[in-house]
């Protein structure tokens, strides 16, 4: 029995220990937020890489998701003579849930892997040690600009994705499902509330923080050699994706059930 309990306890303790290390890493990152020096060039480059270069992928994902969502809602609603709710549910679904979650997952796939590979390679080639030798704090120079840039950029990507996803639903609704364009847009405007959009933007900020934090954490703790960098990249994407889904549930429970 003791061996059985030990076999159950070891992975639980490992998960708790990993959670503690990530929490301390996040606290160490945020500790440098208000203390100089500030590396604005690194922040600007991170903002460009995370925000602007992720926009096409997020936009395409949102557009096709909005169109598919309109088709699915119409198909399901037709069973109950409720086809008219397509505009409302597409708008609310994109703003509250699909826009932030899919945008966060797309950014995680692109950004978390990139950050982990970049920082992991710097560690393997001893560039991080060189920064320390030059009296430059690696956390402040490498981690903070990326975490801050992702936290600010992902909500903007979510807002753009929401708009494009709703536009995708509108295009499918008017071109394929015979909705009147003016009526579709009026229903979208009347039933979409400010907090529906605002909650999605808050989720986007949290997801961006998670994505960059996981990329930096696993990059900083990468093993030696190409195999270590590959493992860090994989762990960063998987961890970011799982944490995004978990955080989405918690934020949804707080925003819409409290």
Number of strands: 0
Number of domains: 1
- Ranges where pLDDT stays below 50 over 5 or more residues in a row are none
Main beta sheet, described?
none
Structural class: mainly alpha
Helix content: over 70%
Measured on Cα atoms, how large is the radius of gyration? 21 Å
**Number of helices, counting only DSSP H or I runs of 4 residues or more:** 9
Form type: globular
Describe the protein's architecture and organization.
The chain has 258 residues and is mostly helical. It has one domain. 86% of the residues lie in helices and 0% in strands. Helix 6 crosses helix 8 and helix 8 packs antiparallel against helix 9. The longest helix has 39 residues.
Strand and helix layout:
Layout: H1 2-31, H2 40-52, H3 55-77, H4 86-124, H5 127-133, H6 138-175, H7 181-191, H8 194-220, H9 225-257
Summary, kept brief:
With 258 residues, this protein is an all-alpha fold. Helices cover 86% and strands 0% of the residues.
Features of this protein?
single chain; 258 residues; mainly alpha; 86% helix
């Amino acid at each position: 029995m003791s061996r059985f309990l030990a076999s159950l306890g070891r992975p639980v303790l490992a998960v708790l220990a990993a959670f503690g290390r990530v929490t301390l890493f996040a606290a160490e990152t945020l500790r440098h937020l208000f203390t100089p020096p500030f590396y604005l060039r690194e922040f600007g480059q991170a903002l460009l890489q995370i925000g602007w270069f992720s926009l096409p992928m997020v936009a395409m994902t949102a557009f096709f998701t909005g169109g598919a969502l309109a088709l699915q809602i119409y198909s399901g609603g037709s069973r109950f003579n409720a086809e008219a709710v397509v505009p409302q549910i597409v708008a609310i679904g994109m703003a509250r849930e699909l826009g932030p979650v899919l945008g966060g997952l797309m950014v995680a796939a692109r950004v978390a892997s990139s950050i982990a590979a970049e920082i992991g390679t710097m560690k393997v080639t001893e560039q991080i040690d060189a920064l320390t030798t030059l009296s430059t704090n690696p956390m402040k120079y490498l981690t903070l600009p990326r975490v801050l840039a992702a936290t600010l950029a992902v909500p903007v990507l979510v807002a753009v994705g929401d708009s494009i996803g709703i536009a995708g639903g509108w295009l499918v609704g008017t071109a394929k499902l015979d909705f009147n364009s003016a009526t579709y847009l009026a229903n979208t405007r009347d039933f979409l509330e400010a907090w529906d959009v605002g909650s999605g933007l808050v989720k986007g900020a949290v997801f961006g923080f998670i994505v960059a934090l996981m990329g930096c954490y696993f990059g900083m703790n990468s093993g030696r050699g190409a195999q270590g960098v590959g493992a860090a990249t994989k762990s960063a994407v998987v961890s970011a994706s799982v944490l995004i889904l978990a955080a989405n549930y918690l934020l949804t429970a707080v925003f819409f059930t409290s």
